[in-house]
Amino acid sequence: MRSVEPTEKSFSTVGSLDVVGLGFLGIGQITPESLSCIRQADKLFYLGSDALGREWLRGQNASLESLYDAYSAGKNRLESYEEMIQRMLAPVRAGERACVAFYGHPGVFVFPSHEAIARARREGHSATMYPAISAEDCLFADLEIDPTDFGCASYEATDFLVRPRRVDTSAALILWQAGGIGVTTYENGLEWNPEGVRLLTERLMQLYGDAHEVVVYEAAVIPVCDPVIIRVCVEQLPSVRVSVYSTLYVPPLIVRDPIRQDDLLRLGQGNFT
Ligand SMILES: C[S@@+](CC[C@H](N)C(=O)[O-])C[C@H]1O[C@@H](n2cnc3c(N)ncnc32)[C@H](O)[C@@H]1O
What are the residue numbers of the active site? Predict the structure, then answer.
């Protein structure tokens, strides 16, 4: 049973909002429950740049409206998100069943989805997020990584760079939005801040050394394409293309803390690798 926040303000007309994700590979990773929400909606929204995906969605539900035009070059992204949220909530406030589809997972690194759900519930509407396949899930499959082997930490790249934190280099590290470090606006083109990549490189060299291999990863967005997997040593990172669609994977430095035997014995374990 999904939890519902207490109602702050009750509207006489109650609508609903379904928030779904399409995964990647065009619409090749969509789940049956998300597809059902898409088809049943009175009003469908889509936020993504994929024209084929958009037209496919229109075929599923003719009410489709793209939210992508809320972005424009130089416009603050928070302003764009606010506009998207208002557009998504308008049919909900009118008592309709709205659905919004994002690429990837709708709740992974997506501000307007969480915010629209919170506001819809505060106004007395029902709102539900459905799980989907994120870029990180594709990365685990394409790079054949098990995140539990060494542990795995995941950060937004700007956040990772500007907040001093204790980084556990014995665990894997995943950095989102490495191609847009420090950029708060939407920009044309795909490499928003090469200087940010250089700063990130310096930080990674301090932590991992110049020669440690990192992977610039892009999941395939259409079925006929392969994923982009660029392996370089940290030092060379600024020489390869890091786009706003890239996710950076930093494998662990394989120096692990010794296992605490006392804790193992308390767990009743004799053998642990
Ligand atoms: C706003 S987030 C959206 C994430 C998305 N909701 C998901 O579930 O993967 C944008 C970031 O997702 C990652 N991303 C988007 N498309 C990607 C792709 N095709 N391959 C790898 N990472 C991608 C990048 O780190 C990018 O900067």
Answer: 77, 81, 103
Task: Give the residue whose CA is nearest to atom 4 of ligand 1.
Answer: 109
Q: Which residues are near ligand 1 (CB < 6 Å)?
A: 24, 102, 104-105, 108-110, 134-135, 176-177, 217-219, 221, 244-245, 247
Q: What is the pLDDT of residues 40-69, one digit of tens each?
A: 999 999 998 888 889 999 999 999 999 999
Separation of CA 180 and ligand 1 centre (Å): 12
The pTM for the full model equals: 0.89
Domain segments of the chain as ranges: 16-129, 135-250
Please tell me the predicted confidence (pLDDT) of residue 194.
87
What CATH number is given for 135-250 in this structure?
A: 3.30.950.10
Distance, in Å, from the CA atom of 231 to the CA atom of 150, rounded to the nearest integer, reads 20
Q: How far is the CA of 103 from the centre of ligand 1 (A)?
A: 8
Q: Tokens for 239?
A: 């020489």
Contact call for residues 228 and 217 (beta carbons, < 8 A): yes
The answer to whether the beta carbons of residues 100 and 17 sit under 8 Å apart is yes
Q: CB–CB of 216/194 below 8 Å?
A: no
Q: Whose CA is nearest to atom 3 of ligand 1?
A: 109
CATH number of 16-129: 3.40.1010.10
pLDDT tens digits along 3-53:
444 444 455 689 999 999 999 988 889 999 999 999 999 999 999 888 888
Which protein residue has the closest C-alpha to ligand 1 atom 27? 177
Question: Cα–Cα distances in Å, from 111 out to 79, 106, 115?
Answer: 12, 9, 6
Specify the ligand 1 atom closest to the Cα of 175. Answer: 25
With CA atoms as reference, report the closest residue to 94 among 18, 25, 13: 13
